[in-house]
Amino acid sequence: MLSLEQELKSNAYPGRGIVIGRSADGKQAVTAYFIMGRSSNSRNRIFVTEGEGIRTQAFDPAKLEDPSLVIYAPVRVLGNKTIVTNGDQTDTIYEGMDRQLTFEQSLRSREFEPDGPNYTPRISGIMHIEGGNYNYAMSILKSNNGDPSTCIRNTFAYENPKAGEGRFIHTYMHDGNPLPSFRGEPKEVAIDRDIDAFTEMIWNSLNEENKVSLFVRYIDIETGKYETRIVNKNH
Questions:
Q1: Which of 31, 40, 79, 220 has the CA that lies 20 to 30 A from 60?
Q2: pLDDT digits (tens, 9 = 90+) for 39-70
Q3: Rounded to whole angstroms, what are the CA distances from 146 to 69, 73, 88, 153?
Q4: CA gap 213, 164 in Å, rounded
Q5: What is the pTM of this model?
């Protein structure tokens, strides 16, 4: 199992990242989502609460250049399902699953972002909690090593995840021009039992210059009640 702290500290630009897993005491379903930015448009953002989820918002509306790939709802809740993504495919998954499509089927209509030459992957997660049972899945839609004529679709499903274990997927392997897409399976990382300690560790491990916002949620697997933390660099 990898140290999430070391993974983040050793990568100046993982881009956007999703962590999903189970707390060390086994009682909580855990997710974290962070955004980073290199451009002023990407950095000019904050997370705000919207319903049971969150959305991104321009910190200074006067400086907002192009909202298309930076303003979206990363987290939405549909009944006993929590959807976490790095773009407006949150809505695609929400609407698809509302029509009885699966997570994977809902994403068939989408591919990587149209931001060549990076062709940023779309990463998504779904958490399902029902009757004291918990499972989750993660997806990545990416170009074929920067060739946009092919979309590679990977879905990873985790049934009855073990206490203290999670998976971490992010958009870029590291900083670069163009930015290289994430490769391989989501990384196995340790999950703290305490939401505040976990939030603080992630935020402090992200590159100081590039980090923008962080969302963390712990959901009680028995009751469905949740606690949320939001940290914004701009405030």
A1: 31
A2: 999 999 999 999 999 999 999 999 999 889 89
A3: 18, 26, 21, 14
A4: 24
A5: 0.98
